[in-house]
Amino acid sequence: MAQDHDKHHANAMEDVEKSPTTTSGDFETEFTPAEQRKIIHRIDRRLVVTVGVLYCISLMDRTNLSAASIAGMTVELSLYVPYGTVSRYSIVTLVFFITYIIFQPPSTVIIRKIGPRIHLSAITLAWGAVMIGMGFVNDWESLAGLRVVLGILEAGFFPSCVYLLSTWYTRYDVGKRYSVFYILGSLASACAGILAYGLMQMGGLQGLGGWRWIFIIEGVITCVLAIGSFWMLVDFPDKAHNSWKFLNEREAKFIIDRVNRDRGDARIEEFSLAKFFRAGLDIKIWGYALIFFNTTTVSYALAYFLPIILMENMGFSVGAAQCLVAPPYAFAAIIMYTTSYIGDKYKTRGPIIVFNMILCLVGLPIMGFHSSSAVRYFGVFLTTAGANSNVPATMSYQANNIRGQWKRAFCSATLVGFGGIGGIAGSLVFRTQDAPDYHPGLYACIACSLLTLVTVASITIVFIYQNKRAARGEIELEDSDEDHQRGFRYTI
After folding, report:
1. Which domains are assigned to the chain?
2. Residue 480 contacts by C-beta under 8 Å, 6 or more apart in sequence?
3. What 3-state DSSP class applies to 248?
4. Nearest 5 degrees, angle CA 54-CA 171-CA 119?
């Protein structure tokens, strides 16, 4: 009997490859509820925290231009000189997103081939080296060129993390995990201004300006964390038992069983280019991507221009503008986790996105048009909270409503790709010639928020209609050649 039991465990991973859906809870029943929670919390600490810390430096490294700009970079490199109809500063910010968008689709394929530990740690180490190089540029063209390279390297990070997290958690566990992942990035944005202000004080050391030390020191931090991440990152669930001192085979099988019972797509499908791009025929995927575009347009506009707006529009000093970025992002972290917790608990996604956009629609007019600087700063709180909270909310929305490994991979790539397009828009909406009021940029952000409401409403109507048809037995939702789980319903 014992031999049969051991043989059963030895063949556990082979069994899951053969059967995409497990009808029995063989492995789950071997763990008490307390043991199950302990396993999941271990995954949270190892996986969510590690990718969250890496996302901290990712977001900090791609958005520290605003801090460097008011620390002397714009003067030394003449970045506010017009280049055509836009400033050189806008060119430097947007060229990052060109390569960031182009190189995203292959990333979710590459991470499956070589594994998260090698893929994520290697590209993080490489872009840390690029950041250090930015501290030694002597003209704006060199800075723009390094931003292009940074876009290539960072392109593989965010979609890979979104995809990796979605493979580990069930649909109504993933919202809080996405929020913690992004909260760590938001807190990095909050602290980045304070850190940058401190690094500015190094100006003059070794004959380098303060803005150069911002790039150099933050690049060194990135490289150190990248090296450590090689040992901390974990693989996909089907290979997790091979990760050092993480999960044993039985525990990994328990995770795979949970995902299979929830949505039936834990089995690894053989890759084919046709299968990958076939997901693009589903119009809902482009709806999720449009929501993400609208969200990131606002969030990147704040990331790149908030210190400048605080200084030029609201009259704060350089030091105050650097430090006053922090409180709105701290408030955003609270709103982000609270709304994600509610979304997971009540199994809802669309209303959370609508609530966040309403915060933006209230905050943007206050931020742009009130006569008092203190009240306008209050509007910054609402806008920052709404825009940033919608990033994990949209990630959860799409993750809950698709099935299939390669469809999930394609959706992650397109979602983040449109987020990159939003980054281009966000880097252009606040133009130098519109200073100090920046009203056209505010109108653009308001339009994006309104478009999100329309898109969510349209998708919700489709979901309700399709769920009713599925309940009557007329169709099977999100069915495919590889997945044969019945009873899937869209999360509204």
Report:
1. 38-239+275-471 (1.20.1250.20)
2. 403, 404, 407
3. coil
4. 30
Peptide bond before residue 436 is cis, with ω within 30 degrees of 0: yes
Structure tokens that stand for 416 in this block? 């983040």
Q: For residues 229 and 127, is the Cβ–Cβ distance under 8 A?
A: no
As to burial, measured by CB atoms within 10 angstroms (0-12 exposed, 13-18 middle, 19+ buried), residue 354 is: middle
Q: Averaged in consecutive runs of 10 residues, what is the pLDDT profile of the chain (492 residues)?
A: 42 38 50 88 90 87 82 87 77 87 81 88 95 94 94 88 86 88 76 83 89 94 93 83 71 85 68 75 93 94 83 81 85 92 92 97 93 91 94 91 80 85 86 82 95 97 94 81 67 92
Q: 206 in the Ramachandran plot: left (φ > 0), alpha (ψ -120 to 50) or beta?
A: left
- Exposed e or buried b for every residue in 223-254, given b needs 16+ CB within 10 A? bebbeebeebbbbbbbebbebeebbebebbbb
**Residues 6+ positions from 19 with CB-CB distance below 8 Å:** 267
Closest CA to 54 of 246, 295, 233, 243: 233
Give the tokens for residue 167.
């493979």
User: Cα–Cα distance between 367 and 377 in angstroms, integer?
Assistant: 6
pLDDT at res. 9: 39
Residue 149 near residue 130 (C-beta atoms within 8 A): yes
Give the integer Cα–Cα distance in Å for 286 and 280.
8
In angstroms, the CA 243 to CA 24 distance is: 26
CB 311, CB 318: distance < 8 Å: yes
Instruction: Name the DSSP letter for residue 246.
Output: S
Does residue 235 contact residue 130 with C-beta atoms inside 8 Å?
no
Q: Do residues 124 and 226 lie in contact, with contact meaning Cβ atoms separated by under 8 Å?
A: yes
CB 337 within 8 A of CB 183: yes
Paired strand residues for 87:
82
Q: CB-side exposure of 85: number of CA atoms within 13 Å? A: 3
Task: Give the Cα separation of 6 and 12 in Å (integer).
Answer: 10
Task: Report DSSP state, residue 433.
Answer: G
pTM: 0.77
Helices (H), 103-248: 107-114, 116-134, 140-154, 158-168, 174-200, 210-232
Amino acid at 330: A
Tokens 């602290």 correspond to what residue?
191
* CA dist., res. 247 & res. 31, Å (int): 14
Q: Is 80 helix (H, G, I), strand (E, B) or coil?
A: coil
d(CA 185, CA 330): 11
Which tokens belong to 428? Answer: 């252009």
**In sequence order, what DSSP letters do the residues of 305-338 get, joined into one string?**
HHHHHHHHTT---HHHHHHTTHHHHHHHHHHHHH
**Residue 83: beta bridge partners?**
86
Six-digit token string for 395: 């990630």
